[in-house]
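Lecture notes, part 5. Sequence design as translation. It can be helpful to think of inverse folding as translation between two languages: the language of shapes and the language of residues. The source text, in structure tokens, appears below.
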């Protein structure tokens, strides 16, 4: 785990104070700490499985909730963020195996393939905010405050991970946004950090693989990956 909850929760605490929700923070923080420690441990485990880092897929924040529906949780099925069949983008469009002993085995195969192909998902926020568990959520935050919150998360949350990514990169690692709305909302904040770390060569380098509805564009993913 690359950063401690205690050092980043204060960022969110200040936001709750500004929004006059300070009385709700402690209850929300209990859930957020559980989500943070759970997802960070799994992210670290899956990052270490990668021997050749080729693509960083940028997400907003980890899914969690009652079902703990995080992409790297082997005990939950894939979500619309990345469906099992999206692996075809790394498989020359060939059909994937369909017979498994269990849904857990199917999810583990997906995680193995992501590691083998050198793909890691990077959340730009450490907070698993959602309307069912927290008083605030990302859709309700103005773009100005959204970007300010992101800037505050860089030092203690994003930078340690990006340094690890830089160390594991061969110099040809690609970065792509999963959703266009995320690219628009972040307003080049992430690009500035990546450029300063020399992980990208241009502020306009990052593309988006969002397709129709919530699905991703497999052809675009394949194009960026190759």
């Amino acid at each position: 785990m690359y950063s401690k909850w205690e050092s980043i929760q204060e960022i969110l605490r200040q936001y709750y104070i500004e929004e006059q929700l300070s009385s709700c923070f402690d209850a929300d923080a209990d859930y957020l700490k559980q989500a943070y420690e759970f997802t960070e441990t799994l992210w670290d485990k899956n990052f270490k499985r990668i021997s050749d880092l080729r693509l960083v897929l940028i997400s907003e924040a980890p899914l969690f909730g009652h079902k703990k529906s995080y992409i790297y949780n082997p005990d939950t099925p894939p979500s619309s963020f990345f469906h099992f069949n999206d692996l075809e983008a790394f498989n020359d469009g060939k059909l994937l195996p369909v017979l498994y002993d269990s849904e857990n085995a199917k999810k583990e195969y997906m995680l193995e393939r992501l590691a083998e192909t050198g793909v890691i998902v990077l959340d730009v926020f450490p907070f698993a905010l959602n309307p069912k568990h927290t008083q605030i959520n990302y859709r309700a935050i103005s773009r100005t405050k959204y970007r300010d919150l992101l800037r505050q998360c860089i030092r203690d949350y994003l930078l340690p991970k990006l340094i690890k990514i830089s160390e594991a990169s061969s110099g040809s690692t690609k970065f792509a946004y999963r959703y266009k709305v995320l690219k628009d909302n972040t307003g080049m904040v992430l690009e500035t950090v990546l450029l300063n770390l020399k992980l990208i060569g241009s502020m306009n380098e990052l593309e988006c693989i969002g397709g129709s509805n919530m699905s991703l564009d497999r052809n675009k993913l394949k194009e960026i990956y190759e």
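The translated text above is only one of many valid answers, since several sequences can fold into similar shapes. Residues 22-48 form the longest helix (27 residues).
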